[in-house]
Design goal:
The protein has about 425 residues and is α/β, with parallel strands linked by helices. It has two domains: about 300 residues, Aminopeptidase, CATH 3.40.630.10; about 80 residues, Urease, subunit C, domain 1 (Roll), CATH 2.30.40. It is about 35% helix and about 25% strand. It contains twelve helices and 17 strands. The strands form three sheets. It has an eight-stranded mixed β-sheet with strand order 1-2-4-3-5-10-8-9, with helices on both faces. It binds zinc ion. Zinc ion (ZN) binds next to loops.
């Protein structure tokens, strides 16, 4: 205590800020843990499949309008090519504007579901110090489901057959024009571009699945840094620190090659610090419900970091050091199985790679295996590996691209 008195004022300020900074970061990690641990109490329980459509979204928005009352404004900002409404949700009165849009690719709904949970958390915790802070320091501008026609068909492209994320310059699709006009209307400081990626990307060459991949997109071919992109990198670092608490090293970095036609790259160029969030894969989570939870917890935690300015102290190195997304992962590899040919005499030893896919048949949509590679697959990783040594399978069952029953494979290789 007496020693403290001998410190000069600037040193006192330094220590005060240091302690304050540590306290804010600690507070934020506590907040994200609370969000994660209490998720079941505020998520929308009746959303259990990725195939919810525009009509479902509108139902949930009605529920949220009632529960949030004055805290939310919902404005129809346009319509899709097939005349489905595209809506902007606005919350908060703060000067820092945070813009986010989900599902510009119709079959990428994970973040849309996470955003609905996030809004439900806000409605149930209006008076908590964290939510009050977020709503007083920031303005949240949210477009959920930017491509409702694609969502209706569960397809990437719009109903006009265009990949909206290659339409940022020509702006031929009504949906792309809505996104551009909304960005220009608010000129937000921060943006989150919310997508899904193939669930079989791994983190670097370690073979661990990438549950979320992040990117602070480049705004030029040289991939230079400026104030706008550096802020995006800090936000990506902050998000990484939040998520690593729950998924360790399962965060990947998305390729930052400049794509002149994409929205993320251009919005960064237009002056909004953008982070791309790609929802990837997780074992036994075909419907991506766990990843939906990570979107909700991650975004809300980062909003709090923005509201308290805590993210500004986070080093860009956390983001820079994330290993790149790599495509060397299968769902299942059966190692060194014996494959028997129909002549009954010849056989080979081979690894068999199987991915689990949604298959549409008259009974509806079912998850089945597809044979995606056969041979020496020793350089690849898998979410699950079975030892096939000493077990044999008929060659006709493991032809490339064949659909197989996982149960049948289990009977052969795991009994
Ligand atoms: Zn996408």
């Amino acid at each position: 205590m007496t020693r403290f008195l001998f410190l000069n004022n600037s040193m006192k300020t330094f220590f005060f800020l240091l302690v304050l900074g540590m306290t804010t970061q600690l507070a934020n990690s506590q907040f994200s843990k609370t969000l994660f641990n209490s998720y079941d109490s505020y998520k929308f329980n009746d959303i259990s499949t990725r195939r919810f459509k525009h009509a479902d979204l509108m139902n949930y928005l009605e529920i949220l309008k009632k529960s949030l009352g004055d805290l939310i404004q919902v404005e129809q900002i346009g319509s899709s090519a097939e005349n489905r409404s595209i809506n902007l949700l606005m919350l908060g009165t703060g000067k820092m504007k945070i813009f986010m849009w989900s599902q510009m690719h119709g079959d990428e709904p994970t973040a849309t579901m996470g955003l609905l949970d996030l809004l439900n958390y806000i409605s149930k915790n209006k008076n908590s110090s964290e939510i009050k802070k977020i709503l007083s320091e920031t303005t949240l501008l949210i477009i959920p489901m930017l491509n409702p026609d694609g969502a209706e068909r569960f397809q990437r492209r719009t109903s006009q057959g265009i990949d909206m994320n290659r339409d940022a310059l020509r702006l031929q699709t009504p949906e792309a024009r809505i996104l551009k006009a909304t960005r220009d209307r608010f000129n937000p400081e921060i943006g989150f571009n919310l997508h899904d990626q193939d669930p079989r990307y791994s983190v670097g060459d370690k073979g661990t699945v990438a549950v979320i991949s992040l990117l602070a997109p480049a705004y030029n071919v040289e991939k230079s840094d400026n104030v706008v992109r550096t802020r995006a990198k800090k936000l990506a670092s902050e998000l990484t620190l939040v998520l690593q608490q729950f998924v360790d090293n399962h965060i990947g970095k998305y390729d930052d090659t400049f794509e002149p036609r994409a929205f993320g790259d251009n919005i960064q160029k237009w002056g909004t610090s953008v982070v791309l969030i790609e929802s990837g894969g997780w074992k036994d989570d075909n419907e991506k419900m766990f990843i939906r939870k990570l979107n909700c917890v991650g975004l809300l935690s980062v909003f709090h970091s923005i509201a308290t300015n805590a993210y500004e102290k986070t080093s860009v190195d956390v983001y820079e050091n994330i290993p790149m997304n790599t495509k060397n992962l299968f769902d299942l590899i059966i190692e060194k199985a014996t494959i028997l040919f129909s002549d009954g005499r010849s056989s080979i030893i081979a690894d068999i790679a199987v991915n689990v896919e949604e298959i549409h048949d008259p009974s509806g949509t079912v998850w089945k295996g597809r044979i995606v590679d056969v041979g020496d697959l020793s350089v690849f990783s898998a979410n699950e590996k079975w030892n096939g040594t000493g077990r044999s399978i008929d060659a006709s069952l493991v032809e490339m691209n064949d659909i197989v029953s996982i149960e049948e494979l289990k009977n052969i290789f795991q009994k």
